[in-house]
Amino acid sequence: MTLPLSATAASATPSADSTAPARPAPTPGTPDATVVTRRRPVVSGSDQQGRRARNKADKQARILAAAESLLGEVGYERMTTAEVAKRANVAAGTVFQYAPTKAELLMMVVEHEWRDLVDDHLPDDAGDGGVREHVLRLLEPFAQQARDYPENAMVVGREVLFGAPGPYREKVVALVAGLEDAIAALLVAAGGDAERSVVAAGLIVSGGVLELNRTRTGRAEVESVARRLGDLVDVAVRGAGV
């Protein structure tokens, strides 16, 4: 049976003689203590941008570390972007947001490693031993990588010389150009012709890449790398007029 609205209201409202204690009225100007207001913390636009930047940097660092470890463990050909994503704990599509191709993923790792190599070994002058020995010292870290990981070195050389444009490849090419400039400056400081020194530096770097890759194709022994690089540098240095 449905009660009339007035009866329902009366039954829901305590009578004046109810035994329930009366609720005291709040003091004017003081908020009611029984009312709890929940407010979300205000996040500024700069805080949100900072958080997104940190998340992006963290994902990129994990992807870089995953790709670097896989390149060392299984090599470029056997490395897959799916395994990189799994090891980095990101979605497969996330990897392509940072490196749109597998070759660019390789260039991401190369740029990270070569940046330190170039920065640590760029010379101010020929130093002790003459220009030939200093140029060989500049090339040695790259030669060591090629000896340790010949398969990866072959792909790196191919991408540097003939690869499709990409943001990380362009950074690697810029590092190579910086290395060429440093070698050319050494040759000029040692008395070489300015224009020929630039050509000689380019021949040393690009020719060095090709010489290092001969070991991968079986056209030369690993033990002959140092001698062949030395011969290449000798020819280029003489061609620059040093």
From the structure above, extract its key features:
globular; 11 helices
Description:
- The protein is an all-alpha fold and 242 residues long.
- It has eleven helices and no strands.
- It comes from Dermacoccus barathri.
- Residues 57-117 form the HTH tetR-type domain.
The termini sit apart by 113 Å
How many helices in DSSP terms?
Answer: 11
Q: List low-confidence stretches.
A: 1-20, 33-37
Order of helices and strands: HHHHHHHHHHH
Largest sheet: none
- DSSP strand content: under 5%
Rounded radius of gyration (Å): 34 Å
Return the average pLDDT rounded to an integer. 81
Estimated structural class: mainly alpha
Q: Please provide the count of β strands.
A: 0
**Share of helix among residues?**
over 70%
What is the general shape? globular
